[in-house]
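User: Second chain of the day. Same drill as before.
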Amino acid sequence: MTDLLRIHKALADETRLRLAGILRRFELNVGELVAVLGMGQPRVSRHLKILVEARLVDCRREGLWAFYCAASSGPGRRMLDASAALMDTPEFAADLDRAAAAVRERVQATRRFFDAVAGHWRDLSREVLGELDLPGLIASRVPEGASVADLGCGPGELLERLSARACLVIGVDNAPRMLELAGQRLNNKTPHNGRAGVSLRLGELSHLPLREGEAQAAVFSMVLHHLPDPVAALSEAWRVLCPGGRLIIADFDRHENEAMRVQYGDARLGLDRQQLNAWLEEAGFTPGPVELYPVNQGLSVLLAEAARP
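Assistant: Same format as last time:
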């Protein structure tokens, strides 16, 4: 009864109901919620605090930022799921449309950032990675002769290494300038001299331009910490991998270096390893081993493997 009273008291307000409806579908920060609701930041923060205390909403802190979404489990989540049909109204639909636009703007801002820095992305990467041969480490984990998808391929440094090992390499990115540079690097190579064919495709990682089961291996190299919904991207990777396919993830281990947001367009301050395993399992993967490699600026890169059963 205590849970029920707490939850009903928290939801007995129009603004908090609207927030609950939005956060059941999206994870947003306070600034985005302020824009969606058209309210002042102190008012929105006050209502969020009540929802968090009622365990209807979870707060995920990333350095100086805080992101909110519906509780992942417990009585609060069950109440929100049970109320979903009652939230199917024009008022809630308008909020969801604005929230979806906020997420799209976040994705577009990331795309604009990468288009702007594409020409010197290799230098930016090496400022952090130093002497770590990350493309080599990843390529060594791809089965020889496999068809492999580099998801978020950037300017193509990893594609070049993979093409010497795989039978077909598919590079996907949502930044046109990155794909242009990747094409220049690979010079539209076709199978010869032991090098694989390469297919470059423009697309979002949450809606991959690949057929189901098209790849035998897939790679996310320094990508997931840029995405608003990593589980959506992982689920798409599961879809395009054939049964028994291998997923390789390279990313920053969890850190608190706030400067990475400004200098490198990071949306998340690395990945928590337990959270990563939970994402993988939610997407249908069987998590495998994880290795850590220290790099510059006090950061570490994690290299994780997973399998599609």
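The chain has a mean pLDDT of 89.

User: Great, on to the next one.
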